[in-house]
Amino acid sequence: MMADTGDLHGSCLCGGIRYRAALPVFHASHCYCTMCQKQHGAGAGSYANVASAGLVIEQGAELITEYASSDDGRRDFCRVCGSTLFWRSTQSPDRIAVTLGTLEPEYTGPVKRELFVETKPAWLPRA
């Protein structure tokens, strides 16, 4: 389980972007919406939801590109390697979701939420 204090650390595939996000994690989730599937090229997007005020881009802020995927959804990725980094809602500016796959070391906390299970791909294992 992740401690309630300290930081998560992450980076993109090419290493051009490095960030840290202050704990605690509000919740972690697997999102099966079709937009997450398309962006991640996978069955789900996996995220740790944290306070946006605790996110610090330590390196490569100029490499981050934002895509407005819906009226209130914003997705940030590395413009060099394409790594998906963050998701946020303009309706909840105090929170940001960091992608679990970019964390170093790997995330060890629980993932208790599954979102948009109605669009979970049939080819994924069922519980």
TrEMBL record:
Domain of life of the organism encoding this protein: Bacteria
Transmembrane segments annotated in the record for this chain: none
Record bears the keyword Acetylation: no
Domain CENP-V/GFA: 8-114
Family matches, as InterPro entries: CENP-V/GFA (IPR006913), Mss4-like_sf (IPR011057)
Entry keywords, A to Z: Lyase, Metal-binding, Zinc
Ranges in coiled-coil conformation: none
Keyword Nucleus in record: no
Pfam families reported for this sequence: GFA
Family named by the database record: Belongs to the Gfa family.
Protein name: GFA family protein
